[in-house]
Amino acid sequence: MTLKRILFLLFVIAITMKYGKGQKPNNSSAEIPLLDNQNLPLVAQFDTTKLNQVLKIAIKKTIEETMNEMIPRIKQAVLADIGYEPGREKEIPAFTASLTRTRNLGGYEVVIFDKIWLNTGGAYDNDTGVFTAPKTGLYSISTTVMSYHAKYLHCFLWKNNERMVLAFGNDLSTGTLNVVMALKMNDKVFVKLTGFTEYIFGEHRSTFSGYLISE
């Protein structure tokens, strides 16, 4: 090992120990205690100005390279998490869902149309049965509900906390409604039973649809 390398290693160790003790660094020079061949104390003084500049450049470059590598990964992970597909941001929000099986629903229970056929923009949630308007505008909303054999069925269309129009069926008949609604961004639309426990026919005979007409 050359003398220059030994001195450099000693310099790094000294700087590390000095900074590790909470001492403020001297930006221009550093003194390192050394011993000569006779074990007599010596002092080596180094100019750290250029070294600080080199370290700053190296650190900045490392940070930039790390960020340039991580930002695309983070962006891709976020877009995947929210279900975004590049190139589809200009598509019209639209959805169609149906009920797969006949259900006995309790009073004021939201009808969850669990089979999604179309869900541009992902605004309809088939876990809750709720459509959340992704944009402010005029929307066409429709639903068809089919009653069970010898049973009544009353379903209201709701906008947030406002009960709107009614779809009614009796003994395997269907109730259908089609409305145009002015929705603000994040308004919620869903189908909910009245206060009675009733059956709703599944097998894709009951449906819920909507799409943006204009902004």
Give the gist of this structure.
The chain is of the alpha+beta class and 215 residues long.
What labels describe this entry?
215 residues, alpha+beta, Jelly Rolls, 2 domains, five-stranded antiparallel β-sheet, signal, Collagen/C1q_domain, secreted
Topology, please?
Layout (H helix, E strand, L loop, with lengths): L2 H18 L8 E7 L5 E7 L1 H34 L11 E5 L4 E3 L9 E6 L3 E2 L4 E3 L4 E10 L5 E8 L2 E9 L3 E10 L4 E6 L4 E3 L6 E8 L1
Antiparallel strand pairs: 1-2, 3-5, 3-14, 4-13, 6-7, 7-12, 8-11, 8-14, 9-10, 9-12
Main location: secreted
Subcellular location: Secreted
Pfam family, one: C1q
Structural class: alpha+beta
User: Oligomerization state of this entry?
Assistant: single chain
Low-confidence stretches: none
What is the count of helical runs? 2
The biggest beta sheet reads: 5 strands, antiparallel
Tally of strands: 14
| Highest-level CATH class of the largest domain | Mainly Beta
What best-fitting shape do the alpha-carbon axes yield? elongated
Strand order of the largest sheet: 5-3-14-8-11
